[in-house]
Structure formats: structure tokens, C-alpha cells
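Database export, one record per block. Field names are fixed; values are copied verbatim from the stored entry.
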Amino acid sequence: LLRSPGWLGVMTGMLADWSQFSDWHYHRDPTHVNFFSRRTMNWLADKYGWDPSYPSDNVTLFFSR
């Protein structure tokens, strides 16, 4: 999926507190069919052996050694 060494950048709206989902503007857009959180990004990183970093609230960078 990601050649080593390599970077993968993902930009998406991430909700920090799922109890606020109904008030979150992002889920009202009909083109948004999947929703992510840092927990999701950490799960992906663990699954593929990547190192995640979060330079901003909506950006995840994965590094594969």
C-alpha cells in the first residue's frame, strides 16, 4: 500500500468527540460517506506499521520506514 520509506498524507474532517456527531457540520454533506477520528488513523497506522503524525486538526501524515 505504501512503499518504504514513504509518506501518505490524508486530509479529512475528524471529530474529536463522537457525542457531538449530530451537531457536526461535516456529516450533513451527502458526499461524505465515511467518518474518521484520530482513533481510526491510529488503528490504520498500527495495522500497516506506519508512524502517524498530526500537523493540524484535519491532517494526518503516515510514515512507512
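Remark 1: The radius of gyration is 13 Å.
Remark 2: Residues 52 and 62 are 4 Å apart (CA to CA).
End of record.
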